[in-house]
Amino acid sequence: MSTAFLFNNDKILMMKRSAERKLAPGVWTGIGGHIEPEEINNPEIAIKREIYEETGIENHRLSDLNLRYVLLRQKGNEIREQFVYFGRTDQQQLVENDEGELHWLDIESIHELDKPMIIESMIEHYFKFGIDNEEIYVGLLTMTADNKAKMTFSAMRDPIVV
Fold this sequence. Notes:
By secondary structure, this protein is α+β, with helices and mostly antiparallel strands. Helix content is 17%, strand content 41%.
């Protein structure tokens, strides 16, 4: 999966997913979707395609679109990987789509929205640690010893091997 959260001045673009969607119905999330086979080695191509398909925002209207999180979780026998980008746009006009409803929201208000746990944790982490740096973080959704869901984050850094 590839997902984006876009800012326009003091607003953030969020999608309330349609209640009919199979994945995360009725909850709030960013823009995005599945990575196509030809995009597998370049999730940035996938997110730019998804942004255009779901919002109508063309690539030249995007700025500072950077990979900030790689989120991992296991669901049954499947390991799910989600590449999360944050960026900016000067375009407020959006197209309608069948994924859900798009809304430009005050940043403070997104903390009250019903979001998937992995997205909720990542957004909380971003506003606490990630907004003022350029680190890419790996987020792992796992279980504690007492069977409670838990997100852990670690900065992904390329070790210098001499």
